[in-house]
Amino acid sequence: MTDRTFDRTSEDLGNIIDLGHVNVTVIDQRVATAYYISGLGLTRDPYLMTGTNNMWANVGRSQFHLPTRPEAQVVQGVTGLVIPDREALLDRLEGVRKELKDTKFDFKETNDAVETTCPWGNRIDCHAPDRNRFGRMALGMAYVEFDVPLGAAAGIDRFYREIFGAISTMTERKGSPCAEVHAGEKQFLYFRETESPRVPYDDNHIQFYINDFSGPYKKLMDRGLIYQESNQHQYRFKDIVDPESGEMVYTLDHEVRSMGHPMYARPLVNRNPAINLRAYHPGRENASWTI
User: Fold this and answer.
1) Would the pLDDT of 2 be above 80?
2) What is the CATH number of the domain that holds 133?
3) FRET label pair with 94: which of 50, 158, 170, 250, CA 20 to 30 Å apart?
4) pTM metric for this prediction
5) 15 in Cβ contact with 212 (< 8 Å)
6) Total Cβ atoms within 10 A of residue 245
7) Are 173 and 20 within 8 A, CB to CB?
């Protein structure tokens, strides 16, 4: 027995249990490799999508999916990563600056993060591990923050709570109303109100795993929102509808997977980017995604 007390609610995840990947198209796999692999220090999945027309880049337990298309896609917002060793990250990013000089690539340091822009304009902020903010995550995808229209956040909050059974709350982020949706262990979707999105929506998508797979499916079907019956373990929808008003408040392609999906909890290879030909240490090739 112990006299200690614990906040058990801090361990609750809700129905969305894992933010699996963010999918954006890229124009050139060589350029994508320079930024995501050489610059950010992520790891190309060695088992799947190993050709020249797609790349899956591992970051802890999550991924970026980067298929090649004639037009690049840009998320309406910011993706937040946790990446250890800020100085090493800055050195890697500086090391690819010349190769990416004719693209939109850039980066800058702030107190909170290293704010980067991918060669096609995606904003990816890289934070140092912080147990208070990111729990045990030492390497991973901590959040995706979307720019949404003024007045949309409350409807989005109701949608994820009532349709998906997610833990979601209305909060303030960067001085604006925001729906904060739990999407896994210390993973979040933020829907932050802005006067106008920086870029138009272009069909980029996110993917997450849920525990109650059929319940949200029925509610989405009743509202005519399912647009793809992918397979036994997956379905997709795009429109976020306020359950209270029935109004469509935001569009974002969602790839929804069950815990029975063959790729659920698939172990991902994460390399230690400090290892190179000149500084090789046997047994230190792998990076841990936890503190």
Assistant:
1) no
2) 3.10.180.10
3) 50
4) 0.97
5) yes
6) 10
7) no
For residue 117, count other CB atoms closer than 10 A to its CB.
18
Using CA atoms, how far apart are residues 288 and 79, in angstroms rounded to an integer?
21
Tell me the one-letter amino acid at 196: S
Assign 89 to helix, strand or coil: helix
* pLDDT one-digit tens code per residue, 143-164: 999 999 999 999 999 999 999 9
19 Cβ contact partners less than 8 Å away, ≥ 6 residues apart: 62, 141, 144, 183, 184, 187, 189, 206, 207, 208
- Is 16 contained in some domain? yes
In a domain, 288, yes or no: no
Question: For residue range 74-107, what is the model confidence (pLDDT) as tens digits?
Answer: 999 999 999 999 999 999 999 999 999 999 999 9
d(CA 93, CA 100): 10
Q: Are 255 and 175 in contact (CB under 8 A)?
A: no
Full strand arrangement of the beta sheet holding 226-231: 43-44, 56-59, 62-65, 16-23, 205-210, 248-258, 234-241, 226-231
In sequence order, the 6+-apart residues with CB closer than 8 A to the CB of 57 are: 36, 37, 42, 43, 44, 45, 63, 64, 66
Which three-class secondary structure state does DSSP give residue 21? strand
Q: How many domains is the chain built from?
A: 1
Asked, for residue 264, whether it belongs to a domain, the answer is no
Strand stretches in 26-161, DSSP E: 43-44, 56-59, 62-65, 77-82, 106-109, 114-117, 123-127, 140-148
In degrees to the nearest 10, what's the CA dihedral of 232, 237, 240, 243? Answer: -50
Please, how many CA atoms are within 13 Å of residue 211, restricted to the half-sphere of its CB?
10
**Tokens found for residue 48:** 């799947």
Range of the domain at 125: 12-258
